[in-house]
Amino acid sequence: MARTVWDSTVGKKTVMAVSGLVMLLYLVAHMIGNLKIFFGTSEFNHYAHWLRTVGEPFMHYEWTLWLVRVVLVVAVVAHAVSAYQLSRRDIKARPSKYVHRKPRSSYATRTMRWGGIILALFIVWHILDLTTGTVHSGGFETGKPYQNVVDTFSTWYGNVIYIVAVLAVGMHVRHGFWSAAQTLGAGSRTRDRALKTIANVLALLLTIGFVAVPVGVMTGVVS
Fold it and tell me: Which of 82, 113, 131, 192 could form an S-S bond across to 12 if both were Cys, CB 3.0 to 4.6 Å?
């Protein structure tokens, strides 16, 4: 039964919608956490430490954080695989080029695939930069996330990579939330306008919220 659902186009779209919403919830929480950097070094570092102690003593140190990471990895993989397979089906279903030169889809729709690739590459860079410190520009210090963030956004390329990725996130969320709502049956004539508004507001808030951190470092508000 599960195999049949997965093999169907509707099943893959449902997997994309659910996994996308899981990642969206994480993005909202992550953005709110990032904004704590504006409250100072101790506040931000304490928040980073708290993430590793959530659930104690029932959960061991970092167990909850690793559980979240596993769920996210599963969501990302499921989202990427279903998106790729749906894309291949779409190409096979219309092997010839469109007769009309003017594209009928929105800009966000046409850039979803490239946006996904940009985000995948960014996730790898982001982890290597601020989690493992492998490609960190300055002297990466474990347990000092505030200084590590400031180091990253004190470089021009750190800002460019991050801001480009955040803009891709905004476009992805704007189109993805709307698509997920339609796939899961939330759309209707009376709700479509509200759903589009929510999608636009979410995308805008996430973009502003994430971009605020590098801008804060660049302007000296965070130092």
Answer: 82
